[in-house]
What does this fold into?
Amino acid sequence: MYILKNEFIWISLILIGLFFSSATPYSDQSIVSPLERINWTWAEPVLSTVDFEYAGGPVSLEAKGSVGLIEFLIRKAAHFTVFFALGALLVKAVSRTRLHAGLTILFAWALANTVAIFDEFHQSLTPERTPLIQDILLDSFGAACGVLLVGGYYLWKHGRTNWSRSGYVSPRW
It folds into this structure.
């Protein structure tokens, strides 16, 4: 059971998944075909409220259609979610170093951002894939949320007494 609690296993699995995902051309990982089999008219009232610009292009029901918009939202939610989990796991891993709590949080976030940058660079080497600074920012935001949630929880749970006394955080979850 310890293997499931080891953050290094989960971090490795995320990094391997990111590598293979970035190395896969868009046409091989597109989920448009399965989404087209579903009748999305029930969601169009909600989807019609979505209207913003991303990477210099419009994101709306009119611009992408219901299937294109849903696929876009799923893909961007995946960016956020994967880096949220990575950030949270990196806080847990970096906290083993006994760094000060603020440095632990900052270092974990910096590591997640480094992964995001290299992931987008790796996409630039893959046919049909486009590296976007907006995706790096989305990844960074997801990682920041994960880092702050886990780091904040730890400081709230353990922090005051240990932090005041020694100034260091050393969780052994």
The two ends are 13 Å apart (CA to CA).
